[in-house]
Amino acid sequence: MNGHHYEVVTRSTARHAAIQVGEFAIGAIAAYVAVGAVWLATGAPWAPILVALALAASAALVEVRYGAKVTGFVVGVLPTAVILAGLLAAVSLVLARYR
Fold first, then answer.
1. Beta carbons of 75 and 21 less than 8 angstroms apart
2. Cα torsion for 72, 38, 57, 59, to the nearest 10°?
3. pLDDT the model gives residue 49
4. From the CA atom positions of the chain, what is the Rg in Å?
């Protein structure tokens, strides 16, 4: 074994990096749209959290099923959904206090 196989496997191309960045952007936008739409429709502090949990579970299943091919998408969805849900839940609670 001369290690040639490992060099080929770990080599990253500009095209591959661009695809992952695009997947990340699509995942982040999908999370913003899904969590934000539910919050706008309900205004409830728990609704974005439930959507974020559903998105996180589905993203984890997609990652397990398809592996490295969808890593950019999953990395875009997971943190965006969770952080946005927490932020919107906090905003809902603050707005409810001052109404």
1. no
2. -20
3. 95
4. 18
This prediction has a pTM of: 0.80
Measured CA distances, 26 to 1, 70, 75 (Å): 40, 11, 10
Q: Average model confidence (pLDDT) for the chain?
A: 89
DSSP 26: H
* CA-to-CA separations, 76 to 23, 25, 86, in angstroms, rounded: 7, 6, 16
Q: What is the DSSP letter of 69?
A: G
Rounded Cα distance, 42 and 36, in Å: 10
Say how far apart CA 78 and CA 59 lie, in whole Å.
Answer: 7
Mean pLDDT of 40-52: 93
pLDDT for 29 beyond 60: yes
Ranges assigned E (strand) in 7-99 = none
Whole-number Å distance between alpha carbons of 24 and 61? 17
Instruction: Tell me if residue 44 falls in helix, strand or coil.
Output: coil
